[in-house]
Amino acid sequence: MPCHFLSKFSRRVLGLARAVAAPALFALVCACGGGGNMGGSSTPAPSGCSASSCGTAMLTLTDATGDFTSYSVDVTSLKLTKADGAVLETLPATTRVDFTQLVDVTELVTAAAIPQGDYVSASMTVDYSNAAVFVEVNGAPVQASLIDGSGNALTSLTLNVELDSAHHFIVSPGRASRLALDFNLAASNTVDVTKTPPVVTVQPFMVATVVPSDTKDIRVRGALVSVDTAAATYTVDLRPFDNDTGSSDQVVVNTTAQTTFEVNGAPATGAAGITALGSLAAGAWTVAFGTLSTTDHSFTASRVLAGSSVVMPSLDGLLGVVTARTGNTLSVRGATLHSHTDQHDRFMPRTVTLSIGDATAFTVAGQPTAAPTVAWPSVGSAITAFGTAGADASGNPTFDATAGRVRLEITSLWGFPVAASAGSVTLNVQAIEGLPPASFNFAGTGTTSAQDSNPAMYVVTTGTLPLPTVSSTSPIRYIGIVQPFGSAPPDFNALTAVDFADVFAKLDVDFGQGSAAAFSSVGASSLVLNLADPLLGHEHVIQAGPLVIDLTTLAASPPIVPDPAGPDMFAIEGGGGSGSGTLNIYLSYAEFETALASKLTGTTTVRRVLAIGHYDSASNTFTARQIDVILASGG
Questions:
Q1: φ, ψ for residue 551 (rounded to 5)?
Q2: Which residue among 467, 502, 537 closes a domain?
Q3: Bridge-partner residues for 132, per DSSP?
Q4: What Rg do the C-alpha atoms of the chain give, in angstroms?
Q5: Longest Cα pair distance anywhere in the chain, in angstroms?
Q6: 560-615 pLDDT, tens per residue?
Q7: N or C: more exposed end of the chain, with fewer CB within 10 A?
Q8: 343 phi-psi bin (left φ>0, alpha ψ -120 to 50, beta other)
Q9: Distance between CA 614 and CA 152 in Å, rounded?
Q10: How many alpha carbons fall within 13 Å on the CB side of residue 462?
Protein backbone atom coordinates (compact mmCIF):
# COMPACT_ATOMS: atom_id res chain seq x y z
CA MET A 1 0.00 0.00 0.00
CA PRO A 2 1.48 3.36 -1.03
CA CYS A 3 2.71 6.04 1.34
CA HIS A 4 3.06 8.81 -1.22
CA PHE A 5 1.83 11.70 0.86
CA LEU A 6 4.09 11.15 3.82
CA SER A 7 7.12 10.50 1.72
CA LYS A 8 6.77 13.79 -0.13
CA PHE A 9 6.18 16.03 2.87
CA SER A 10 8.70 14.34 5.10
CA ARG A 11 11.47 15.10 2.61
CA ARG A 12 10.87 18.78 3.29
CA VAL A 13 10.31 18.97 7.03
CA LEU A 14 12.08 16.03 8.59
CA GLY A 15 15.61 16.63 7.40
CA LEU A 16 15.91 20.18 8.65
CA ALA A 17 18.35 19.58 11.49
CA ARG A 18 21.18 19.00 9.01
CA ALA A 19 19.98 21.30 6.25
CA VAL A 20 22.91 23.70 5.83
CA ALA A 21 23.84 23.35 2.19
CA ALA A 22 27.49 23.01 1.21
CA PRO A 23 28.87 22.27 -2.24
CA ALA A 24 31.48 19.62 -3.00
CA LEU A 25 33.31 18.46 -6.11
CA PHE A 26 30.63 18.57 -8.78
CA ALA A 27 30.14 17.65 -12.39
CA LEU A 28 27.48 19.44 -14.37
CA VAL A 29 24.70 17.69 -16.27
CA CYS A 30 23.01 19.42 -19.17
CA ALA A 31 19.75 18.54 -20.92
CA CYS A 32 20.28 16.62 -24.10
CA GLY A 33 17.78 16.58 -26.93
CA GLY A 34 14.10 17.39 -26.98
CA GLY A 35 12.58 14.04 -26.18
CA GLY A 36 12.94 10.34 -25.70
CA ASN A 37 15.65 8.33 -23.99
CA MET A 38 19.37 8.17 -24.69
CA GLY A 39 20.52 6.24 -27.68
CA GLY A 40 22.05 2.82 -27.23
CA SER A 41 20.85 -0.27 -25.47
CA SER A 42 20.42 -0.73 -21.76
CA THR A 43 19.82 -3.65 -19.47
CA PRO A 44 18.56 -3.99 -15.90
CA ALA A 45 21.16 -4.49 -13.20
CA PRO A 46 22.05 -8.19 -13.25
CA SER A 47 20.46 -10.54 -10.72
CA GLY A 48 23.34 -13.04 -10.71
CA CYS A 49 25.91 -10.80 -9.07
CA SER A 50 28.32 -12.18 -6.50
CA ALA A 51 30.67 -10.51 -4.04
CA SER A 52 33.57 -11.36 -6.35
CA SER A 53 32.05 -9.82 -9.48
CA CYS A 54 29.79 -6.98 -8.33
CA GLY A 55 29.59 -4.09 -5.96
CA THR A 56 26.72 -1.99 -4.64
CA ALA A 57 25.83 1.27 -6.37
CA MET A 58 24.38 3.73 -3.86
CA LEU A 59 22.72 6.51 -5.87
CA THR A 60 21.22 9.46 -4.02
CA LEU A 61 19.23 12.41 -5.35
CA THR A 62 18.61 15.84 -3.86
CA ASP A 63 17.78 19.31 -5.12
CA ALA A 64 19.08 22.86 -4.87
CA THR A 65 16.41 25.39 -4.03
CA GLY A 66 14.39 27.26 -6.67
CA ASP A 67 11.45 29.66 -6.88
CA PHE A 68 8.69 27.05 -6.72
CA THR A 69 5.99 25.92 -4.32
CA SER A 70 5.69 22.62 -6.18
CA TYR A 71 7.64 21.06 -9.07
CA SER A 72 6.15 17.66 -9.88
CA VAL A 73 7.42 15.70 -12.86
CA ASP A 74 7.80 12.05 -13.84
CA VAL A 75 11.30 10.58 -13.65
CA THR A 76 11.30 7.69 -16.10
CA SER A 77 14.91 6.52 -16.12
CA LEU A 78 18.18 6.70 -14.20
CA LYS A 79 21.07 5.00 -15.99
CA LEU A 80 24.77 4.40 -15.46
CA THR A 81 27.24 3.93 -18.31
CA LYS A 82 30.56 2.07 -18.03
CA ALA A 83 33.76 2.98 -19.78
CA ASP A 84 33.16 0.06 -22.17
CA GLY A 85 29.76 1.49 -23.18
CA ALA A 86 27.54 -0.90 -21.23
CA VAL A 87 24.42 0.86 -19.92
CA LEU A 88 22.50 -0.16 -16.79
CA GLU A 89 19.04 1.04 -15.75
CA THR A 90 18.85 1.59 -11.97
CA LEU A 91 15.40 3.15 -11.46
CA PRO A 92 12.86 0.37 -10.79
CA ALA A 93 9.84 2.20 -12.24
CA THR A 94 8.60 5.56 -13.48
CA THR A 95 8.30 7.76 -10.43
CA ARG A 96 6.44 10.99 -9.73
CA VAL A 97 8.79 13.39 -7.94
CA ASP A 98 8.11 16.83 -6.49
CA PHE A 99 11.63 18.25 -6.51
CA THR A 100 10.75 21.02 -4.07
CA GLN A 101 10.45 18.31 -1.42
CA LEU A 102 14.11 17.37 -1.91
CA VAL A 103 15.58 20.73 -0.90
CA ASP A 104 16.26 19.70 2.71
CA VAL A 105 16.53 15.92 2.35
CA THR A 106 18.48 13.53 0.11
CA GLU A 107 16.72 10.43 -1.27
CA LEU A 108 18.44 7.05 -1.51
CA VAL A 109 17.31 6.05 -5.00
CA THR A 110 19.01 2.72 -5.45
CA ALA A 111 21.35 0.30 -3.74
CA ALA A 112 21.68 -2.04 -6.69
CA ALA A 113 24.27 -4.76 -7.16
CA ILE A 114 26.01 -3.95 -10.44
CA PRO A 115 29.12 -5.28 -12.17
CA GLN A 116 32.43 -3.93 -10.97
CA GLY A 117 34.07 -1.36 -13.15
CA ASP A 118 34.64 2.24 -14.10
CA TYR A 119 31.38 4.11 -14.63
CA VAL A 120 31.99 7.32 -16.56
CA SER A 121 28.54 8.84 -16.92
CA ALA A 122 24.97 8.88 -15.68
CA SER A 123 21.69 10.03 -17.17
CA MET A 124 18.24 10.87 -15.85
CA THR A 125 15.17 11.16 -18.10
CA VAL A 126 12.42 13.53 -16.96
CA ASP A 127 8.98 13.50 -18.58
CA TYR A 128 7.33 16.95 -18.48
CA SER A 129 4.18 16.02 -20.41
CA ASN A 130 2.16 15.72 -17.18
CA ALA A 131 4.17 18.19 -15.07
CA ALA A 132 2.52 20.33 -12.38
CA VAL A 133 4.69 23.32 -11.54
CA PHE A 134 3.50 26.11 -9.21
CA VAL A 135 5.17 29.43 -8.44
CA GLU A 136 4.28 32.08 -5.88
CA VAL A 137 2.55 35.17 -7.34
CA ASN A 138 1.29 37.92 -5.02
CA GLY A 139 1.32 35.55 -2.07
CA ALA A 140 -0.53 32.68 -3.74
CA PRO A 141 0.63 29.57 -5.65
CA VAL A 142 -0.19 29.70 -9.37
CA GLN A 143 0.35 26.92 -11.89
CA ALA A 144 2.92 27.90 -14.51
CA SER A 145 3.20 27.24 -18.20
CA LEU A 146 6.36 25.35 -19.21
CA ILE A 147 8.46 25.85 -22.33
CA ASP A 148 11.92 24.80 -23.45
CA GLY A 149 14.72 27.18 -24.44
CA SER A 150 13.27 27.51 -27.95
CA GLY A 151 9.80 28.38 -26.70
CA ASN A 152 8.28 24.97 -27.43
CA ALA A 153 6.10 22.89 -25.14
CA LEU A 154 8.04 20.36 -23.12
CA THR A 155 7.84 16.60 -23.51
CA SER A 156 10.75 14.49 -22.28
CA LEU A 157 14.33 15.57 -21.56
CA THR A 158 17.34 13.41 -20.80
CA LEU A 159 19.99 14.90 -18.55
CA ASN A 160 23.47 13.51 -19.10
CA VAL A 161 26.48 13.78 -16.82
CA GLU A 162 29.97 12.97 -17.98
CA LEU A 163 32.00 12.52 -14.81
CA ASP A 164 35.38 14.22 -14.52
CA SER A 165 38.16 11.83 -15.55
CA ALA A 166 39.75 12.11 -12.10
CA HIS A 167 36.49 11.36 -10.30
CA HIS A 168 34.76 8.48 -12.04
CA PHE A 169 32.22 6.31 -10.21
CA ILE A 170 34.30 3.24 -9.37
CA VAL A 171 32.43 0.09 -8.32
CA SER A 172 34.59 -2.54 -6.60
CA PRO A 173 33.70 -6.19 -5.80
CA GLY A 174 31.93 -6.68 -2.49
CA ARG A 175 31.94 -2.96 -1.66
CA ALA A 176 29.44 -0.10 -1.76
CA SER A 177 30.16 3.07 -3.74
CA ARG A 178 28.09 6.25 -3.80
CA LEU A 179 27.21 8.74 -6.51
CA ALA A 180 25.22 11.81 -5.39
CA LEU A 181 23.04 13.64 -7.91
CA ASP A 182 21.62 17.14 -7.40
CA PHE A 183 18.81 18.41 -9.65
CA ASN A 184 19.30 22.19 -9.53
CA LEU A 185 15.91 23.92 -9.78
CA ALA A 186 17.39 27.42 -9.78
CA ALA A 187 19.84 26.71 -12.59
CA SER A 188 17.38 24.59 -14.56
CA ASN A 189 14.55 27.11 -14.73
CA THR A 190 13.93 30.77 -15.48
CA VAL A 191 10.65 32.10 -14.08
CA ASP A 192 8.73 35.02 -15.58
CA VAL A 193 5.90 36.01 -13.21
CA THR A 194 5.03 39.11 -15.27
CA LYS A 195 3.07 36.89 -17.64
CA THR A 196 -0.32 35.31 -17.00
CA PRO A 197 -0.01 32.46 -16.31
CA PRO A 198 3.63 32.60 -15.21
CA VAL A 199 6.04 31.13 -17.75
CA VAL A 200 8.89 28.84 -16.75
CA THR A 201 11.64 28.28 -19.29
CA VAL A 202 13.21 24.88 -18.61
CA GLN A 203 16.77 24.10 -19.63
CA PRO A 204 17.60 21.50 -17.00
CA PHE A 205 20.90 20.32 -15.68
CA MET A 206 22.07 18.77 -12.46
CA VAL A 207 25.31 18.32 -10.61
CA ALA A 208 26.88 15.09 -9.42
CA THR A 209 29.70 14.13 -7.11
CA VAL A 210 31.44 11.06 -5.74
CA VAL A 211 32.46 13.07 -2.65
CA PRO A 212 29.16 14.53 -1.37
CA SER A 213 29.17 16.96 1.54
CA ASP A 214 26.34 15.07 3.35
CA THR A 215 24.93 18.08 5.16
CA LYS A 216 21.37 16.86 4.60
CA ASP A 217 19.62 13.88 6.13
CA ILE A 218 19.42 10.80 3.90
CA ARG A 219 15.93 9.33 3.52
CA VAL A 220 15.44 5.56 3.06
CA ARG A 221 11.93 4.43 2.18
CA GLY A 222 11.00 0.78 1.81
CA ALA A 223 8.88 -2.23 2.62
CA LEU A 224 9.93 -4.13 5.73
CA VAL A 225 11.73 -7.44 5.07
CA SER A 226 13.04 -8.45 8.50
CA VAL A 227 14.05 -7.12 11.92
CA ASP A 228 17.06 -8.15 14.00
CA THR A 229 16.25 -6.85 17.46
CA ALA A 230 19.52 -8.17 18.94
CA ALA A 231 21.60 -6.25 16.41
CA ALA A 232 19.21 -3.27 16.44
CA THR A 233 18.92 -3.40 12.65
CA TYR A 234 16.18 -3.98 10.12
CA THR A 235 16.16 -4.67 6.40
CA VAL A 236 13.91 -3.05 3.81
CA ASP A 237 13.18 -3.65 0.16
CA LEU A 238 14.03 -0.16 -1.11
CA ARG A 239 11.15 1.82 -2.67
CA PRO A 240 12.51 5.29 -3.48
CA PHE A 241 10.28 8.36 -3.77
CA ASP A 242 6.73 7.04 -4.23
CA ASN A 243 7.48 3.69 -5.85
CA ASP A 244 5.38 0.80 -4.59
CA THR A 245 6.76 -2.03 -6.74
CA GLY A 246 9.77 -2.87 -8.85
CA SER A 247 12.75 -2.72 -6.50
CA SER A 248 14.81 -5.70 -5.45
CA ASP A 249 17.47 -3.63 -3.69
CA GLN A 250 17.69 -4.46 0.00
CA VAL A 251 19.13 -1.99 2.49
CA VAL A 252 20.08 -2.66 6.11
CA VAL A 253 19.08 0.17 8.45
CA ASN A 254 21.17 0.48 11.61
CA THR A 255 19.62 2.06 14.70
CA THR A 256 21.10 3.26 17.97
CA ALA A 257 19.94 3.82 21.53
CA GLN A 258 19.11 7.39 20.51
CA THR A 259 17.07 6.54 17.39
CA THR A 260 13.46 7.68 17.76
CA PHE A 261 10.60 5.59 16.39
CA GLU A 262 6.94 6.04 15.68
CA VAL A 263 5.35 2.66 14.95
CA ASN A 264 1.59 2.47 14.34
CA GLY A 265 1.24 5.87 16.00
CA ALA A 266 3.14 4.90 19.16
CA PRO A 267 6.43 6.74 19.89
CA ALA A 268 9.48 4.97 21.31
CA THR A 269 13.27 5.22 21.51
CA GLY A 270 16.11 2.77 20.99
CA ALA A 271 15.50 -0.86 21.98
CA ALA A 272 11.79 -0.27 22.62
CA GLY A 273 11.43 1.11 19.11
CA ILE A 274 13.20 -1.74 17.36
CA THR A 275 11.10 -4.20 19.37
CA ALA A 276 7.92 -2.45 18.26
CA LEU A 277 9.15 -2.55 14.67
CA GLY A 278 9.70 -6.29 15.04
CA SER A 279 5.99 -6.78 15.75
CA LEU A 280 5.05 -5.60 12.25
CA ALA A 281 4.41 -8.00 9.42
CA ALA A 282 6.76 -8.17 6.47
CA GLY A 283 5.76 -5.64 3.84
CA ALA A 284 4.87 -2.88 6.30
CA TRP A 285 5.96 0.53 5.07
CA THR A 286 8.94 2.25 6.70
CA VAL A 287 10.58 5.64 6.27
CA ALA A 288 13.93 6.36 7.94
CA PHE A 289 16.09 9.49 8.15
CA GLY A 290 19.76 9.40 8.98
CA THR A 291 23.28 9.31 7.57
CA LEU A 292 25.42 7.24 5.23
CA SER A 293 28.89 6.39 6.47
CA THR A 294 31.67 8.00 4.44
CA THR A 295 33.73 4.82 4.67
CA ASP A 296 31.51 1.78 4.02
CA HIS A 297 28.30 3.71 3.13
CA SER A 298 26.27 1.89 5.77
CA PHE A 299 23.08 3.69 6.80
CA THR A 300 22.25 4.66 10.40
CA ALA A 301 18.82 6.09 11.21
CA SER A 302 18.17 8.92 13.63
CA ARG A 303 14.42 8.63 13.13
CA VAL A 304 12.10 5.86 11.90
CA LEU A 305 8.40 5.88 10.97
CA ALA A 306 6.62 2.59 10.33
CA GLY A 307 3.25 0.94 9.85
CA SER A 308 0.26 3.23 10.18
CA SER A 309 2.59 6.10 11.08
CA VAL A 310 3.45 6.06 7.39
CA VAL A 311 0.10 5.23 5.81
CA MET A 312 -3.37 4.39 7.10
CA PRO A 313 -5.34 2.26 4.63
CA SER A 314 -8.78 3.79 5.31
CA LEU A 315 -7.72 7.42 5.77
CA ASP A 316 -6.45 10.21 3.56
CA GLY A 317 -3.33 12.22 4.31
CA LEU A 318 -2.73 15.95 4.51
CA LEU A 319 0.64 17.65 4.82
CA GLY A 320 1.22 21.37 5.13
CA VAL A 321 1.68 24.40 7.38
CA VAL A 322 -0.95 25.88 9.72
CA THR A 323 -1.49 29.54 8.81
CA ALA A 324 -4.46 30.29 11.11
CA ARG A 325 -6.53 28.64 13.83
CA THR A 326 -9.98 29.36 15.29
CA GLY A 327 -11.00 26.90 17.99
CA ASN A 328 -10.33 23.46 16.52
CA THR A 329 -10.48 24.65 12.92
CA LEU A 330 -7.11 25.15 11.26
CA SER A 331 -6.16 26.70 7.93
CA VAL A 332 -3.42 24.69 6.16
CA ARG A 333 -1.43 26.10 3.27
CA GLY A 334 1.11 24.65 0.84
CA ALA A 335 -0.50 21.28 1.38
CA THR A 336 -0.10 17.96 -0.33
CA LEU A 337 -3.24 15.81 -0.24
CA HIS A 338 -3.10 12.04 -0.62
CA SER A 339 -6.32 10.19 -1.34
CA HIS A 340 -6.45 6.62 -0.09
CA THR A 341 -9.07 5.79 -2.73
CA ASP A 342 -6.99 6.48 -5.84
CA GLN A 343 -3.50 6.57 -4.24
CA HIS A 344 -2.67 9.92 -5.86
CA ASP A 345 -0.93 12.97 -4.43
CA ARG A 346 -2.17 16.44 -5.25
CA PHE A 347 -0.59 19.78 -4.47
CA MET A 348 -3.33 22.03 -3.07
CA PRO A 349 -3.05 25.60 -4.38
CA ARG A 350 -5.97 26.66 -2.17
CA THR A 351 -5.97 26.73 1.63
CA VAL A 352 -7.37 23.56 3.22
CA THR A 353 -9.66 23.78 6.28
CA LEU A 354 -8.56 21.13 8.80
CA SER A 355 -10.80 20.02 11.69
CA ILE A 356 -9.32 18.41 14.81
CA GLY A 357 -10.85 17.48 18.17
CA ASP A 358 -10.35 15.87 21.55
CA ALA A 359 -10.53 12.43 19.95
CA THR A 360 -7.68 13.21 17.55
CA ALA A 361 -4.45 11.38 18.43
CA PHE A 362 -1.34 13.60 18.52
CA THR A 363 2.39 12.91 18.33
CA VAL A 364 5.48 15.11 17.95
CA ALA A 365 8.20 14.29 15.43
CA GLY A 366 11.34 12.96 17.11
CA GLN A 367 10.04 13.56 20.65
CA PRO A 368 8.70 10.25 21.96
CA THR A 369 8.30 11.54 25.53
CA ALA A 370 6.12 14.51 24.56
CA ALA A 371 2.45 14.42 25.54
CA PRO A 372 0.76 16.67 22.97
CA THR A 373 -2.90 17.61 23.20
CA VAL A 374 -5.45 19.19 20.86
CA ALA A 375 -3.94 22.59 21.75
CA TRP A 376 -0.51 21.86 20.34
CA PRO A 377 -1.02 22.55 16.61
CA SER A 378 -0.60 26.31 16.34
CA VAL A 379 -0.04 28.99 13.76
CA GLY A 380 3.24 28.16 12.00
CA SER A 381 3.19 24.45 12.84
CA ALA A 382 4.18 22.00 10.13
CA ILE A 383 1.80 19.04 10.40
CA THR A 384 0.98 15.62 8.99
CA ALA A 385 -2.69 14.66 9.40
CA PHE A 386 -4.61 11.43 8.78
CA GLY A 387 -8.34 11.74 8.22
CA THR A 388 -10.99 12.27 5.55
CA ALA A 389 -10.68 14.75 2.68
CA GLY A 390 -13.72 16.59 1.43
CA ALA A 391 -15.07 19.94 0.27
CA ASP A 392 -17.50 22.54 1.61
CA ALA A 393 -20.62 23.82 -0.16
CA SER A 394 -18.50 26.23 -2.20
CA GLY A 395 -16.07 23.55 -3.28
CA ASN A 396 -13.24 24.67 -1.00
CA PRO A 397 -11.07 21.78 0.25
CA THR A 398 -11.65 20.44 3.77
CA PHE A 399 -10.03 17.74 5.87
CA ASP A 400 -11.57 16.04 8.92
CA ALA A 401 -9.09 14.56 11.42
CA THR A 402 -11.43 14.61 14.43
CA ALA A 403 -11.28 10.80 14.57
CA GLY A 404 -7.82 10.54 13.01
CA ARG A 405 -4.26 11.43 13.85
CA VAL A 406 -2.00 14.52 13.65
CA ARG A 407 1.77 14.60 13.94
CA LEU A 408 3.54 17.90 14.61
CA GLU A 409 6.61 18.01 12.39
CA ILE A 410 9.82 19.91 12.97
CA THR A 411 9.37 23.53 11.85
CA SER A 412 11.95 25.89 10.32
CA LEU A 413 12.04 29.58 11.24
CA TRP A 414 14.17 32.47 9.90
CA GLY A 415 14.50 35.89 11.50
CA PHE A 416 16.73 38.79 12.49
CA PRO A 417 17.68 38.82 16.20
CA VAL A 418 16.14 41.86 17.91
CA ALA A 419 17.15 40.95 21.46
CA ALA A 420 18.93 38.08 23.20
CA SER A 421 19.25 37.00 26.82
CA ALA A 422 19.94 33.75 28.64
CA GLY A 423 17.73 31.04 27.12
CA SER A 424 15.69 33.40 24.94
CA VAL A 425 15.94 35.29 21.65
CA THR A 426 13.46 37.76 20.18
CA LEU A 427 13.26 37.73 16.39
CA ASN A 428 11.93 39.86 13.61
CA VAL A 429 10.60 36.87 11.67
CA GLN A 430 11.25 36.72 7.94
CA ALA A 431 9.88 33.27 7.12
CA ILE A 432 8.19 30.28 8.76
CA GLU A 433 8.45 27.10 6.71
CA GLY A 434 9.38 29.27 3.75
CA LEU A 435 6.26 31.46 4.00
CA PRO A 436 6.45 35.20 4.82
CA PRO A 437 4.79 36.48 8.03
CA ALA A 438 1.97 38.05 5.99
CA SER A 439 0.79 34.51 5.17
CA PHE A 440 -0.12 33.88 8.83
CA ASN A 441 -2.92 35.08 11.13
CA PHE A 442 -1.56 34.88 14.68
CA ALA A 443 -4.89 35.63 16.41
CA GLY A 444 -5.46 33.32 19.38
CA THR A 445 -1.86 32.19 19.77
CA GLY A 446 -1.32 34.08 23.06
CA THR A 447 -2.67 33.52 26.56
CA THR A 448 -4.49 36.82 25.96
CA SER A 449 -5.08 38.72 22.73
CA ALA A 450 -2.44 41.22 23.82
CA GLN A 451 0.07 38.37 23.94
CA ASP A 452 -0.67 36.90 20.52
CA SER A 453 2.49 36.11 18.60
CA ASN A 454 3.93 39.15 16.88
CA PRO A 455 6.26 38.25 13.99
CA ALA A 456 8.19 41.49 14.54
CA MET A 457 8.85 40.53 18.20
CA TYR A 458 8.73 36.73 18.10
CA VAL A 459 10.04 35.07 21.27
CA VAL A 460 12.09 31.87 20.87
CA THR A 461 13.25 29.74 23.79
CA THR A 462 16.78 28.58 23.04
CA GLY A 463 17.82 26.63 26.15
CA THR A 464 21.57 26.09 26.05
CA LEU A 465 21.96 27.03 22.38
CA PRO A 466 24.49 29.81 21.73
CA LEU A 467 22.95 33.26 21.65
CA PRO A 468 23.21 35.22 18.38
CA THR A 469 24.40 38.78 18.01
CA VAL A 470 21.58 41.30 17.64
CA SER A 471 21.61 42.24 13.95
CA SER A 472 19.38 43.62 11.22
CA THR A 473 21.56 42.16 8.48
CA SER A 474 22.50 38.65 9.69
CA PRO A 475 19.43 36.43 10.14
CA ILE A 476 19.44 33.17 12.09
CA ARG A 477 17.55 29.96 11.48
CA TYR A 478 15.91 28.05 14.31
CA ILE A 479 14.49 24.55 13.97
CA GLY A 480 12.00 23.30 16.53
CA ILE A 481 8.35 23.23 17.59
CA VAL A 482 5.84 26.09 17.71
CA GLN A 483 4.43 26.85 21.17
CA PRO A 484 0.97 25.26 21.68
CA PHE A 485 -1.97 27.39 20.57
CA GLY A 486 -3.23 29.89 23.14
CA SER A 487 -0.14 29.65 25.39
CA ALA A 488 2.34 32.17 23.93
CA PRO A 489 4.74 33.62 24.92
CA PRO A 490 7.19 32.12 24.21
CA ASP A 491 6.19 31.66 20.58
CA PHE A 492 8.62 28.94 19.53
CA ASN A 493 10.82 26.30 21.18
CA ALA A 494 14.13 25.85 19.35
CA LEU A 495 15.95 22.53 19.14
CA THR A 496 18.70 23.60 16.74
CA ALA A 497 20.21 26.90 15.57
CA VAL A 498 21.86 27.57 12.22
CA ASP A 499 24.13 30.61 12.31
CA PHE A 500 24.01 32.89 9.28
CA ALA A 501 27.77 32.59 8.86
CA ASP A 502 27.30 28.87 8.17
CA VAL A 503 24.67 29.39 5.47
CA PHE A 504 25.87 29.23 1.90
CA ALA A 505 24.67 32.06 -0.32
CA LYS A 506 23.54 31.69 -3.91
CA LEU A 507 24.41 34.23 -6.58
CA ASP A 508 22.11 34.03 -9.60
CA VAL A 509 22.27 36.34 -12.62
CA ASP A 510 20.57 35.70 -15.95
CA PHE A 511 20.96 37.48 -19.27
CA GLY A 512 17.79 36.33 -21.02
CA GLN A 513 18.58 34.53 -24.25
CA GLY A 514 22.24 35.50 -23.94
CA SER A 515 24.61 38.47 -23.86
CA ALA A 516 28.09 38.90 -25.31
CA ALA A 517 28.84 41.58 -22.67
CA ALA A 518 27.81 39.69 -19.50
CA PHE A 519 31.24 40.12 -17.86
CA SER A 520 33.04 43.37 -17.17
CA SER A 521 36.18 41.30 -16.69
CA VAL A 522 37.35 37.69 -16.70
CA GLY A 523 40.58 37.76 -14.72
CA ALA A 524 43.17 35.45 -13.25
CA SER A 525 41.76 35.94 -9.75
CA SER A 526 38.10 36.93 -10.19
CA LEU A 527 35.06 37.37 -12.41
CA VAL A 528 33.10 40.63 -12.49
CA LEU A 529 29.59 40.70 -13.93
CA ASN A 530 28.39 43.60 -16.06
CA LEU A 531 25.25 44.62 -14.18
CA ALA A 532 24.76 47.60 -16.51
CA ASP A 533 24.26 45.28 -19.49
CA PRO A 534 20.90 46.16 -21.12
CA LEU A 535 20.33 42.44 -21.65
CA LEU A 536 20.38 41.77 -17.88
CA GLY A 537 17.42 39.50 -17.16
CA HIS A 538 14.90 39.05 -14.34
CA GLU A 539 17.32 37.37 -11.92
CA HIS A 540 20.21 39.37 -10.46
CA VAL A 541 20.37 38.51 -6.78
CA ILE A 542 22.41 37.12 -3.94
CA GLN A 543 20.25 35.04 -1.60
CA ALA A 544 21.17 33.56 1.78
CA GLY A 545 18.23 32.25 3.76
CA PRO A 546 15.56 34.98 3.71
CA LEU A 547 18.09 37.68 2.89
CA VAL A 548 17.85 38.73 -0.77
CA ILE A 549 20.17 41.36 -2.21
CA ASP A 550 19.39 42.94 -5.57
CA LEU A 551 22.81 43.23 -7.16
CA THR A 552 21.77 46.31 -9.10
CA THR A 553 21.33 48.20 -5.81
CA LEU A 554 25.00 47.73 -4.82
CA ALA A 555 27.56 50.46 -5.38
CA ALA A 556 29.55 48.12 -7.62
CA SER A 557 29.33 44.62 -9.05
CA PRO A 558 30.92 42.27 -6.49
CA PRO A 559 33.95 40.29 -7.74
CA ILE A 560 33.38 36.53 -7.73
CA VAL A 561 36.55 34.89 -6.39
CA PRO A 562 37.40 31.20 -5.85
CA ASP A 563 37.36 29.92 -2.28
CA PRO A 564 40.93 29.13 -1.22
CA ALA A 565 39.61 26.68 1.38
CA GLY A 566 38.02 24.52 -1.36
CA PRO A 567 37.09 22.07 -2.60
CA ASP A 568 35.99 24.13 -5.59
CA MET A 569 34.25 23.25 -8.86
CA PHE A 570 33.96 25.39 -11.98
CA ALA A 571 31.80 24.53 -14.98
CA ILE A 572 31.12 25.95 -18.42
CA GLU A 573 28.07 24.63 -20.21
CA GLY A 574 27.79 25.60 -23.88
CA GLY A 575 24.02 25.06 -24.02
CA GLY A 576 21.83 26.21 -26.86
CA GLY A 577 18.11 25.64 -27.22
CA SER A 578 16.79 22.82 -25.09
CA GLY A 579 20.06 21.39 -24.81
CA SER A 580 22.75 19.87 -26.91
CA GLY A 581 25.71 21.93 -25.69
CA THR A 582 29.17 20.86 -24.70
CA LEU A 583 30.18 20.53 -21.07
CA ASN A 584 33.48 21.32 -19.45
CA ILE A 585 34.42 20.79 -15.80
CA TYR A 586 37.44 22.38 -14.12
CA LEU A 587 38.85 21.69 -10.68
CA SER A 588 41.15 24.71 -10.72
CA TYR A 589 40.13 28.32 -11.22
CA ALA A 590 43.12 28.98 -13.48
CA GLU A 591 42.00 26.34 -15.99
CA PHE A 592 38.41 27.59 -15.78
CA GLU A 593 39.40 31.23 -16.36
CA THR A 594 41.57 30.34 -19.35
CA ALA A 595 38.81 28.24 -20.93
CA LEU A 596 36.12 30.86 -20.30
CA ALA A 597 38.22 33.63 -21.81
CA SER A 598 38.83 31.49 -24.89
CA LYS A 599 35.11 30.84 -25.34
CA LEU A 600 34.00 34.45 -24.99
CA THR A 601 35.13 35.50 -28.45
CA GLY A 602 32.23 37.83 -29.17
CA THR A 603 29.97 35.32 -30.88
CA THR A 604 29.33 33.10 -27.86
CA THR A 605 26.88 34.67 -25.42
CA VAL A 606 26.30 34.10 -21.71
CA ARG A 607 22.82 33.06 -20.63
CA ARG A 608 23.32 32.60 -16.89
CA VAL A 609 25.91 32.73 -14.12
CA LEU A 610 25.40 30.92 -10.82
CA ALA A 611 27.68 30.63 -7.83
CA ILE A 612 27.52 29.10 -4.35
CA GLY A 613 29.61 30.45 -1.52
CA HIS A 614 29.64 33.39 0.90
CA TYR A 615 29.04 37.11 0.38
CA ASP A 616 31.00 39.64 2.42
CA SER A 617 29.09 42.92 2.38
CA ALA A 618 31.98 44.83 3.98
CA SER A 619 34.34 44.06 1.09
CA ASN A 620 31.55 43.53 -1.47
CA THR A 621 33.10 40.19 -2.47
CA PHE A 622 31.47 36.85 -3.29
CA THR A 623 33.77 33.93 -2.41
CA ALA A 624 32.60 30.89 -4.38
CA ARG A 625 33.00 27.14 -3.94
CA GLN A 626 31.09 26.56 -7.15
CA ILE A 627 30.72 28.67 -10.30
CA ASP A 628 28.57 27.67 -13.29
CA VAL A 629 28.61 29.70 -16.50
CA ILE A 630 25.88 28.68 -18.93
CA LEU A 631 26.38 29.75 -22.53
CA ALA A 632 23.57 30.35 -24.98
CA SER A 633 25.53 28.91 -27.90
CA GLY A 634 28.30 26.35 -28.12
CA GLY A 635 31.79 27.53 -27.36
A1: -60, -25
A2: 502
A3: 72
A4: 24
A5: 71
A6: 999 998 778 788 877 443 344 456 677 789 988 998 998 888 788 998 999 989 99
A7: N
A8: left
A9: 36
A10: 24
